[in-house]
Write a structure and sequence with these properties.
Layout lengths: L25 E9 L2 E10 L2
Antiparallel strand pairs: 1-2
């Protein structure tokens, strides 16, 4: 995992969960951050 060197943050694009745009599937991500490591990463598809 390499954070943004300027901000010391990790940027994750969770997908799209709004109603606008060209995305066909609404998604989000859920994960645990333990000791600087990402664990239990899930991509969740939301119903329409």
């Amino acid at each position: 995992m390499v954070p943004d060197p300027a901000l010391q943050l990790l940027h994750i694009n969770p997908g799209a969960c709004g109603k606008q745009g060209w995305h066909k599937v609404k998604t989000l991500v859920r994960f645990d951050c333990l000791n600087g490591e990402i664990k239990n990463l899930e991509v969740i598809e939301l119903p329409d």
